[in-house]
């Protein structure tokens, strides 16, 4: 079956969730454009499955508003597509026509069985093996034996999902990064049984979506979370070590968050990143990896205690950041949670952050913030000089950062040596494209 034929009948399961709705938007825009340029404009549909009617209604509102932005940005393409339409003259008319046509594609439903005719299914359900297994068991009963399945799991082995659903090589991991419409990276996870045609279709769709596609082997956590989980655990371990020499827990969190952002020139600190993902999600991924890799080190008592105290992070419906390790105002950190006192210690209280900053010391010579270096054509030389300066320093901040950098490199080599990836350059690619790091952990700087 040709890919364009397959794309006439797509389903997204978990459609109204954070990842699912992004995948819905990508596929709606892609298929709307295919439909626009197809001689036969009939027969396209996207079945969008979720458990809540209210959430699905919200999804449709989201799609309509985002499609308008897409259409406005691509008005020149619409003018070409509608060149023969004498009834469409103004840009606004063409934009409305495109949106109205695109909004005929979504078929929202709470019934999983409604996906029975789909020839491609994207699954973006919650990261829970039992729920995913139920979904695939049902889909295998109602869908064609020629249906291709693409799971957005960020940690679960594809082979396990394949086994329960009896999918016989018709499933692979297509791990979009959050949010899918914005993030360029997609991790492509192929199990040992994945059929060549399933892989080829996934790569072709990825190219049509103009994504950066990086392969990962089918090992729990894959490349992205394989590195991120261990990266976060290193930071937590350093916080615990600082407590042993007299620093309070919340002070250590502030220190490591600043070290990982400022000293290591990352877009955000490690605890800010864990907050963004969600402490509960972080814990869940650790549990999945620990189970499948039989690695007792993949666990954090601090994460467990935070969740026990109902501190979970994540985002509100409007995309703003919920409080986690850090407290936020207008998406900017203003305090750190203290598990002992069960409250946030604001940065402004007793000027305590100034004392921690003094302990860390100055950033190395040549420091520029992440945003300034992001589009700097001379960043390679600047980073090399910066890290050379760091290596010669013995301040607390520089020492913590250097140790962290070497641990990050160690993790990258571990991912290759343990079979998660065939090339450490794939680790660099994931961190630079999915996490927006300026440099990969394996580099010429240190």
Structure report:
Strand 7, helix 8 and strand 8 form a beta-alpha-beta unit. By secondary structure, the chain is of the alpha/beta class. Helix 11 (270-277) packs across helix 12 (279-293). It contains 18 helices and eleven strands. The termini are far apart. The strands form two sheets. It has an eight-stranded mixed beta sheet with strand order 3-2-1-4-5-6-7-8, sandwiched between helices. The longest helix is centred in the last third of the chain and has 22 residues, at 396-417.
Question: What's the CATH C level of the largest domain?
Answer: Alpha Beta
> Per CATH, what is the topology of the largest domain?
Rossmann fold
Taken from the alpha-carbon principal axes, the silhouette is globular
DSSP summary, beta strand count: 11
The span between the termini is: 50 Å
CATH architecture of the largest domain: 3-Layer(aba) Sandwich
Keywords:
about 450 residues, alpha/beta, Rossmann fold, N-(1-d-carboxylethyl)-l-norvaline Dehydrogenase, domain 2, 2 domains, 8-stranded mixed β-sheet, 3-stranded antiparallel β-sheet, about 10% strand
Brief write-up:
With 446 residues, this protein is α/β, with parallel strands linked by helices. The protein has 2 domains: 3-217, Rossmann fold (3-Layer(aba) Sandwich), CATH 3.40.50; 224-434, N-(1-d-carboxylethyl)-l-norvaline Dehydrogenase, domain 2.
SSE layout and pairings?
Blueprint: H1 3-6, E1 9-13, H2 18-36, E2 45-49, H3 53-73, H4 75-81, H5 91-102, E3 106-109, E4 120-123, H6 129-142, E5 148-151, H7 158-165, E6 171-176, E7 185-190, H8 196-208, E8 212-217, H9 224-244, H10 249-263, H11 270-277, H12 279-293, H13 301-308, E9 326-329, E10 332-338, E11 343-346, H14 352-360, H15 370-374, H16 379-391, H17 396-417, H18 424-434
Parallel strand pairs: 1-2, 1-4, 2-3, 4-5, 5-6, 7-8
Antiparallel strand pairs: 6-7, 9-10, 10-11
Helix pairs in contact: 2-3, 3-5, 6-7, 9-10, 9-17, 10-14, 10-17, 11-12, 12-13
């Amino acid at each position: 079956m040709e890919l364009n034929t397959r794309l006439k009948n797509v389903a997204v399961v978990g459609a109204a969730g954070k990842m699912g709705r992004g995948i819905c938007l990508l596929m709606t825009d892609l298929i709307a454009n295919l439909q626009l340029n197809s001689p036969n404009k009939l027969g396209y549909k996207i079945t969008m499955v979720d458990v809540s009617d209210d959430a699905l209604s919200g999804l449709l509102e989201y799609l309509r508003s985002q499609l308008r932005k897409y259409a406005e940005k691509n008005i020149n393409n619409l003018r070409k597509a509608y060149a023969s339409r004498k009834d469409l003259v103004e840009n606004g008319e063409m934009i409305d026509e495109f949106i109205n046509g695109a909004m005929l594609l979504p078929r929202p439903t709470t019934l999983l069985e409604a996906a029975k005719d789909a020839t491609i299914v994207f699954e973006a359900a919650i990261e829970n093996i039992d729920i995913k297994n139920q979904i695939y068991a049902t889909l295998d009963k109602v869908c064609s034996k020629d249906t291709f399945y693409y799971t957005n799991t960020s940690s679960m082995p594809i082979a396990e999902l394949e086994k329960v659903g009896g999918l016989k090589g018709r499933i692979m991991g297509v791990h979009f990064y959050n949010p899918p419409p914005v993030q360029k990276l997609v991790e492509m996870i192929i199990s040992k049984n994945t059929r060549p045609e399933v892989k080829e279709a996934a790569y072709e769709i990825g190219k049509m979506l103009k994504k950066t596609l990086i392969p990962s082997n089918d090992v729990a956590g894959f490349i992205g979370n394989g590195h991120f989980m261990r990266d976060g655990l290193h930071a937590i371990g350093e916080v615990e070590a600082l407590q042993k020499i007299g620093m309070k827990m919340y002070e250590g969190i502030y220190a490591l968050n600043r070290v990982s952002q400022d000293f290591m020139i990352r877009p955000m600190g490690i605890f800010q990143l864990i907050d963004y993902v969600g402490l509960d999600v972080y814990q869940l991924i650790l549990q999945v990896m620990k189970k499948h890799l039989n690695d007792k080190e993949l666990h954090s008592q601090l994460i467990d205690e935070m969740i026990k105290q109902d501190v979970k992070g994540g985002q509100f419906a409007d995309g703003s950041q919920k409080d986690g390790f850090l407290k936020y105002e207008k998406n900017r950190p203003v305090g750190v949670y203290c598990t002992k006192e069960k409250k946030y210690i604001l940065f402004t209280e007793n000027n305590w952050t100034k004392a921690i900053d003094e302990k860390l010391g100055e950033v190395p010579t040549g420091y520029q913030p992440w945003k300034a270096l992001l589009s700097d054509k001379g960043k390679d030389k600047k980073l090399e000089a910066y890290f050379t300066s760091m290596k010669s320093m013995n301040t607390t901040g520089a020492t913590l950062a250097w140790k962290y950098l070497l641990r990050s490199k160690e993790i990258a080599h571990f991912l290759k040596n343990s079979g998660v990836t065939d090339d450490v350059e794939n680790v660099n690619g994931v961190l630079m494209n999915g996490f927006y790091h300026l440099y990969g952990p394996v580099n010429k700087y240190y």
